[in-house]
Amino acid sequence: MHNVTHANQFGVVVYDWSNAKAIWANAHPMSSEELITKQAEMVYEQDPGVPGYAPRVWAYRNTIKALNWYSSVREKLDDPKYASWFIKFKGFSNTPYPGGPTQGKDANNSFHVPACDFYNNGTAPRCSGFYHDQEQTPEHAGGGKPYPVDGACTEQCDCGSTNPCGEYIFDHRGGEVEGRTFREWFINEYMVTNETLHHTDPVTGKAQPIGLGWLDDSMSMGGPSEEDKNYIADTGASPQDMAEQVSAYKESIYQLKRKVLPLGGFWWQLMGAGTLFNTGKAPATFTPAEQCKQTLRSQCVGGGGNTSAAPSTWNKMQMYNVPEGGKGATPQNFTDYTAQFLLTRGPYAMLGYSWCGCTNGAQMRPRAEEWDEEFGEPTAGACKETGADTGVFTREWTAATVQWDCNASPGSAYGKITRK
């Protein structure tokens, strides 16, 4: 599990299914979903955050891949009455296959991905007529190219007794079963649940929401993202089938948004990208002067730019992502990053890191000393250019004056934060 003390150095932490993989990949059956919830509860136990604010721990969910190391997915995948909720291999409608197991392409040259699991340890292999690949699937080592190991199972990989572990695909067209459609289940029992926005403190029973974090993957006319490239061939989908899959997927995401936002919920892809003037290379190198001026004039008042105290970028939550996980950044670079954030941020913004592997203790991300300081609140609206074409922009906070100099020489201080 992720070190809770490290997690609580940050205002928001987001956990994907890889968290604690060595533990859940060897559970019988696998339990990634439950461990994400447990990890969030561990973080909250040490630091519950500020009551009334948005959730400070967010949980990963897939929107098109049906990962059966999540128990809520496995329950539906293994129950025949929900067969219409999942995409099938071409020519098959049941699971396991009629007439016994097949090895897919290895046996009948039908598919580009194996339909059965590897390492049966003396038992019959588990096979499935539901389409699935092995791209990012926990495996028992030794299966070769068809079974790349993404999390090692020391024994038989266990995603239940019915279907092998794999990346299955939700069918958002899924029909009604016992009074609810796939979309109704997807929104109300997979996304918005007692393990996310309806979560309660396991000790006190009081509301303790876990936010929706990175809602991964999508469906396009070319097939699902991050899935085997032969999805269409292996499922036999026609152009009309793909158009229907894409349309149904988009409608589910639209309806999910309508459900989540009134609850005070959120997810990563609803954020905008806050402006950090960096080429993305390490050590940090910043945007040329003229481009810097043009960008800030669109976000600051005066200097021939924006004339409003509320730039349009403030209408959306912004995530200011420190590039490359802070690799090679100096203390001054972090001052620059923080200054840019304070200079241009609106009422809803975050500064930090996007996805990074950090649970093994060897990839802790650097932390700017400014991130532990209190700068108060802005005393006016947007930032301002100090004069006509000066290229110097400032913003007043109750406890600091923030400045950005677009004309600074590379390697010098672009940003300054003067404490009051």
Describe the model.
This protein has 420 residues and is of the alpha/beta class. It folds into 2 domains: 1-268, no CATH class; 272-419, no CATH class. It is built from 10 helices and 15 strands. The chain has helices at 4-7, 21-24, 32-46, 71-77, 105-108, 182-191, 231-235, 239-260, 289-297, 331-344; strands at residues 13-15, 57-62, 65-67, 132-133, 167-169, 211-216, 219-220, 223-224, 272-273, 318-321, 349-352, 384-385, 392-397, 400-405, 415-419. Strands 12-13-14-15 form a 4-stranded antiparallel β-sheet, with helices on one face. The protein has a 3-stranded parallel β-sheet with strand order 1-2-6, with helices on one face. Helix 6 (182-191) packs across helix 8 (239-260).
Keywords:
10 helices; 2 domains; single chain; alpha/beta
Counting H and I runs of at least 4 residues, what is the number of helices? Answer: 10
Helix and strand element order? HEHHEEHHEEHEEEHHEHEHEEEEE
Estimate the helix proportion, in percent.
10-25%
Rounded mean pLDDT score:
88
Strand order of the largest sheet: 12-13-14-15
Low-confidence runs: 94-107
Tally of DSSP β-strands: 15
Biggest sheet statistics: 4 strands, antiparallel
Report the β-strand fraction as a percent range: 5-15%
First-residue to last-residue Cα separation: 41 Å
Structural class: alpha/beta
Q: How many structural domains?
A: 2
Which outline best applies?
Answer: elongated
- Rg from alpha-carbon coordinates: 25 Å
Condensed summary:
This protein is of the alpha/beta class and 420 residues long. The chain is built from ten helices and 15 strands. It has helices spanning 4-7, 21-24, 32-46, 71-77, 105-108, 182-191, 231-235, 239-260, 289-297, 331-344, and strands at 13-15, 57-62, 65-67, 132-133, 167-169, 211-216, 219-220, 223-224, 272-273, 318-321, 349-352, 384-385, 392-397, 400-405, 415-419.
